[in-house]
Amino acid sequence: METQSIVLHARFAPNGTVVEIGERPAGLAPQDWFNFLSDKAGDVYQALAGGRGVFRLTREELNALKEAATPAAA
Predict the structure, then answer these.
(1) How many angstroms separate the CA atoms of 10 and 5, rounded?
(2) How far is 60 from 67, CA to CA, in rounded Å?
(3) Rg (CA), the chain
């Protein structure tokens, strides 16, 4: 069985802040999700031209990261 690969796209403003990023957990700002992914999975990030970049993860890796990043319910 093949491992499903997920590509999370990030789009940056001219000042370098993240304005859009895929698979973002509810309650996290785009910049916070990017910072979390950069810290935990920076080795699978690829910068692209035009203020864009991608993280390439397996579905299992992404689910584990989303669970770890989700703020605890108050």
Answers:
(1) 16
(2) 11
(3) 12
